[in-house]
């Protein structure tokens, strides 16, 4: 009888201590604080898209190529803004346009000479790399 009381009280004590431990360890992976206190969100890679490749826009003599460059620049600026604002629906909407931009990129690339292709390819890959980080 004495053993059953001891087991009963130990069971209660263990369940109470395990509840306290689980509340202490309940943290969001992107924050510094537990869920029930002030939240400080740490930036993720998507929050920090670099816009430096957008600032270095190459110029071409072909009007169609320049239009493509400007549309692509605008697209990546919108992606960066939507990412920083955490606007998932806008990000998804813009990601659907990515295939169109890739298709236009392939068409425009054919209209350039080798040196211009290299310049456009380098700039475009810098944008893609910056967005994927």
Task: List its salient traits.
elongated; single chain; mainly alpha; 133 residues
Describe the structure.
- The chain has 133 residues and is an all-alpha fold.
- It has 2 domains: 1-42, no CATH class; 45-132.
- It contains 5 helices and no strands.
- It has helices at 2-24, 52-55, 63-85, 88-109, 114-132.
- It is elongated and about 70 Å long.
Query: What class would the helix/strand composition place it in?
Result: mainly alpha
Number of helices: 5
The major beta sheet can be summarized as: none
Distance between the termini: 64 Å
**Shape, please?**
elongated
Low-confidence stretches: 39-48
How many domains? The number is 2
Q: Care to count the β-strands?
A: 0
How much helix, percentage-wise, in residues? 55-70%
Report the radius of gyration as a whole number of Å.
Answer: 27 Å
Query: Strand-and-helix sequence, N→C?
Result: HHHHH
Strand content: under 5%
Average per-residue pLDDT, rounded, comes to 74
Brief summary:
This protein has 2 domains: 1-42, no CATH class; 45-132. Helix content is 68%, strand content 0%. The protein has 5 helices and no strands.
Write the layout of secondary structure elements.
Layout: H1 2-24, H2 52-55, H3 63-85, H4 88-109, H5 114-132
